[in-house]
Amino acid sequence: MDKIIHQVSAKKVKINEIKPGMVVAKDIVTDEGFVLLARDTMISPSNYSKLKESSIKEVFIKEATINIKPEDLLGRPQAKQPEHIPVTKKKDFQEFAKEYEGKLEITKNRIKAISDGESVNVEELYEITNSIVKKLKTKSDVLTYVSFLKEHDEYTYSHSSNVALLSSMFATWLKFDETEMANLTTAGLLHDLGKLKIPLEILNKKGRLTEAEFDIMKSHTVVGYRILENQNLPENMKLAALMHHERVDGSGYPLALKDEKINKYAKIIAICDIYDAMTANRVYRGRICPFEVIKRFEVSSFGELDTDFLLTFLKNIAYTYFGSWVKLSNGTEAEIVYIHQNDLSRPIVRAGDMLIDIQKTKNITIVDVL
User: Cα–chain-centroid distance for residue 247?
Assistant: First the structure.
């Protein structure tokens, strides 16, 4: 991989083709001579809106291209294809799942007690999650393993535990110190605390909620905040419960806040919350492949979720699977040998003596990680 050379060039794109996360290659200047966005500025949700509302028709954005010689990749020894042992049969997963199941009842009892007014002990709650994390060979294994855990009837508790695990991993990526890691992890565990006060017939309803029922469901954010409001806790943890359904474009609830008004813990937990909801095994559908999740985030979530946190999340997910074996939609099994920085869900894969650039082969996708 040392011989792969990145080349950055300027590409002209129409205004309707831009999206948050792109980087401006040349100053964007209005007809009046006003610099709307300077060169090297990353397009964020806020300045994205300004561009869309302006009279600008085209802009230059930076495009990273790679100069890859097939012999550079094909000359490397190919990684050994893993034995086809189902994840649920692997010893590492079984040890993780056993610890997870053992702690889930403790988690349930603690969350119930807190919802009834008991004090939050951050150190105690963090250790519950941390004991599960310690069963992982690498922390990033949680991305794969949580999607293979059995479905629980009391989804709120398992989902809260999963979001805590994902938040802990996110804290590692952001290089949080131990105190802030504990706080973010605990905030993830308690983010849906208010759901314990939602009537079960609404919380567990299988069909679509009515508008009135959805209004009651949405109240869990305020209810959770009220439970934590007077506790001796960092404000970030309280606001995470209140704001994790807010969106940077103002389309969220309960306060319809925009970008800088939304607490940073809430922005992070929002991403973990959605990721677990998409990847968890549910009665009505199976788990979703991580690369499909990345694609869905790329297509639909820029402008709604914090750009910087979302890019951190997506890039770390993608790079977690570098060197992994995957199954393609045409049935081929291949090794991931390169991740495109600007198209994370469509890497270059190697199958024997053949390289497949999925970015350029639109009819092929990754359907599973082996």
Answer: 14
89, 68 Cβ separation under 8 angstroms: no
Domain spanning 87-288: which superfamily? Hypothetical protein af1432 (1.10.3210.10)
What's the rounded Cα separation, in Å, for the pair 172 and 268? 12
Cα–Cα distance between 25 and 63 in angstroms, integer? 9
Angle CA(144)–CA(247)–CA(18) in degrees, nearest 5?
A: 85
What architecture does CATH give domain 291-370? Roll (2.30)
Q: Which two tokens stand for residue 7?
A: 């080349």
Q: Could you give the C-alpha distances from 206 to 196, 200, 202, 218, 343, in angstroms and in order? A: 17, 11, 9, 17, 35
Going by C-alpha positions, the residue among 227, 239, 234, 236 that lies closest to residue 118 is 227
Tell me the pLDDT tens digit for each residue of 147-165.
888 777 788 999 999 999 9
Q: What is the pTM of this model?
A: 0.80
> Buried b vs exposed e over 81-96: b needs ≥16 C-beta within 10 Å?
eeeeeebeebeebeeb
How far is the C-alpha of 125 from the C-alpha of 5, rounded, in Å? 46
